[in-house]
């Protein structure tokens, strides 16, 4: 694997311009002071209840996501290039989903194989021919970005269903402002605090009935969901109601919320609930989390669901590999953000290559997430590689493979001091009927273990504040 690009230091040991002030500050502050601030941050996070649970773990307990107090810095020029590519990508995703559920021109043109749509478990036949408000499906996208060199950003994954993590982006900034005001005073950092206002403006713009003051609510599965903190956090920040399925009912294809003052009509529902559980009359009949009749109201055009039903058809790892062609097909443009090279194991020649190079590649399940169900060849022993070889031979269509990327590193506070650790970035893109909004920055995830390339919180990864420097 190639040597990782260090975002702070050049190969000759010199510090890159954007990091010069931070580097001097890190040198001047004793390690015990930094460690004390880190413990303060942990105490604050624990006090306000920012925890998550890992599903599938026996006796799973709520835990903190590790927070690194050393910010990740992106220049304004870098951000401008990145934002343009993100807007292009999400525009193409919306056009693709609309096409898949209507004319299917992309399939007839042979750009995307039909089986990747019709055999996709996230494909919703209920959405065939169904129009959605403003022809927008992905209103809130989280696009995972990695760097491997000073000049390029690569898309690692598209999250078009219910991308999470924005509460950590906002809380990370608040903690940094509280603990390191002197460091902020040395930089011109673009704010992220506008995200809640931008999200509310986006949601209101999506009202299906043109209401001047549309009623918005956030639909949560409830307190036992691993992301419940984020649901309640966003409802508080937006000043909207946080509801569960039992708080809502449908009458005459209109969705109402039960209140102490009587029924209140809802126009836009930001749902943090998977398709399967939205409506027991349309999907899983055993769901007690959803709202009976919700899909009827949705199909009647009386409520906007954010994100739209069926968006998962666009964000699995097999469809991801076709995104450059999808962008060209719908927009007639070259992609501004490149994909990571990807082998589709469903194709015999790709499978042959992957099987011959398992020890060098990262192999992922097409519908996997959270760092589960994957093989990192260079970090795996012979038994693990052979076990994965058997999985690939048994069900090759369920996997894709990619080179083992040397993810860029950022300075990170660890027990021994400040050291480089691998990072990725999840910016959040909001698509409303009026415009696209992107808060400068996003959630930087960091692999806290030395040498680890897995940044997911479920696998021990942490987060850090992302600073986009104003020009």
From TrEMBL:
Q: Which Gene3D superfamilies match?
A: 3.30.1490.270, 3.40.50.11290
Q: Which SUPFAM superfamilies match?
A: Glutathione synthetase ATP-binding domain-like
Q: Which residues form the Circularly permuted ATP-grasp type domain?
A: 71-447
Protein name, per record: Circularly permuted ATP-grasp type 2 domain-containing protein
Upper taxonomic classification of the species? Bacteria, Pseudomonadati, Pseudomonadota, Alphaproteobacteria, Hyphomicrobiales
């Amino acid at each position: 694997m190639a040597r990782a690009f260090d975002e702070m230091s050049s190969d000759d040991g010199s510090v890159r311009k954007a990091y010069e002030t931070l580097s001097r500050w890190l040198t001047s502050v004793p390690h015990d002071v930094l460690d004390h601030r880190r413990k303060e941050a942990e105490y604050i996070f624990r006090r306000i209840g920012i925890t998550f649970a890992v599903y599938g773990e026996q006796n799973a307990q709520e835990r903190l996501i590790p927070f690194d107090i050393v910010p990740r810095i992106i220049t304004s020029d870098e951000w401008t290039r990145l934002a343009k590519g993100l807007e292009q990508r999400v525009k193409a995703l919306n056009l693709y989903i609309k096409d898949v559920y209507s004319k299917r021109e992309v399939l007839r043109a042979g750009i995307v194989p039909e089986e990747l749509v019709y055999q996709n478990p996230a494909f919703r036949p209920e959405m065939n021919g169904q129009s959605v408000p403003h022809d927008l499906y992905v209103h809130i996208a989280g696009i995972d970005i990695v760097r491997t060199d000073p000049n390029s950003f690569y898309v690692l994954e598209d999250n078009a269903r219910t991308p999470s993590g924005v509460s950590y982006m906002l809380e990370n900034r608040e903690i940094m402002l509280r603990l390191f005001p002197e460091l902020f005073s040395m930089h011109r950092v673009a704010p992220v605090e506008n995200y809640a206002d931008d999200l509310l403006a986006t949601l209101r713009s999506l009202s299906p009935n043109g209401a001047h003051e549309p009623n918005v609510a956030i639909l949560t599965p409830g307190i036992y969901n691993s992301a419940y903190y984020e649901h309640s956090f966003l409802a508080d920040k937006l000043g909207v109601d946080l509801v569960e399925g039992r708080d809502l009912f449908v009458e005459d294809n209109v969705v109402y919320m039960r209140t102490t003052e009587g029924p209140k009509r809802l126009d836009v529902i930001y749902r943090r609930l998977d398709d399967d559980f939205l409506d027991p009359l349309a999907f899983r009949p055993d769901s007690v989390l959803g709202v009976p009749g919700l899909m009827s109201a949705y199909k009647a055009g009386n409520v906007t669901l954010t994100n739209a039903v069926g968006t998962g058809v666009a964000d699995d790892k097999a469809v991801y590999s076709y995104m450059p062609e999808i962008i060209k097909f719908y927009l007639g443009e070259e992609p501004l953000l490149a994909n990571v090279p990807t082998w589709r194991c469903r194709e015999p020649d790709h499978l042959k290559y992957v099987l011959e190079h398992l020890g060098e590649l990262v192999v992922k399940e097409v519908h996997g997430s959270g760092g589960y169900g994957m093989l990192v060849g260079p970090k795996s022993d012979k038994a693990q590689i052979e076990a994965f070889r058997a999985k690939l031979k048994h069900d090759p269509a369920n996997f894709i493979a990619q080179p083992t990327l040397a993810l860029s590193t950022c300075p990170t506070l660890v027990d021994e001091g400040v050291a480089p650790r691998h990072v990725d970035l999840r910016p959040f893109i909001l698509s409303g009927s009026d415009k696209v909004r992107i808060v400068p920055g996003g959630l930087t995830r960091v692999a806290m273990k030395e040498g680890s390339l897995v940044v997911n919180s479920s696998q021990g990864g942490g987060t850090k504040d992302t600073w986009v420097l104003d020009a």
